[in-house]
Amino acid sequence: MIIRDATAADAAQMTDLLNEIIAMGGTTAYQTPFDTDRMLHHCIARSGLVSSQVAELDGAVLGFQYLAWADDPDDPMPDGWAIIASFVAASAAGKGVGQQLFAATKTKATEAGAKTIDATIRADNVPGLRYYSGLGFTDYDRLIGIPLRDGTVVDRVRKRYDL
């Protein structure tokens, strides 16, 4: 498996991977499928992007992870904080893809001068909570009753990783 920077050429495979996760439901707050243009602008060439990494095996993207500076005016965070999102194909879950992606992301975060990484995860996403805890993220807040696009209300657990 190769961990490398994501490029525009990866957008189609990344889109397919994320849309499969969205269709399965329950592990991402995203509910609207992506197209390649949205993937490119949100996860590969996003304003404030610190890092976008893919895990590739034999030409297939098995997972990806992006890190961007926390700059949402509706969700302010301290200076030096970045937000992370991670996605691994169901067929590759539990095979170390996420750990390898995070090792590369953590290096990029340190190089960029990030102080803390925030992972905000649906409270019902047990595999996601376990993944981030296993990397050393610790709980620091809980957002109560956040509605998803379809009206489903779910808490979100906020975890942090201090660099």
Give a structural overview:
The structure is a single chain. By secondary structure, this protein is α+β, with helices and mostly antiparallel strands. 30% of the residues lie in helices and 36% in strands. Strands 1-2-3-4-5-7-6 form a 7-stranded mixed beta sheet. The longest helix is centred in the middle third of the chain and has 16 residues, at 97-112. The two termini are 26 Å apart. 31% of the residues are buried.
Total count of strands: 7
Oligomer: single chain
H and E order: EHHEEEHEHEE
Low-pLDDT residue spans: none
- Could you say which structural class the secondary elements and strand pairing correspond to? alpha+beta
Shape: globular
Q: What is the distance, rounded to the nearest whole angstrom, between the alpha carbons of the first and last residues?
A: 26 Å
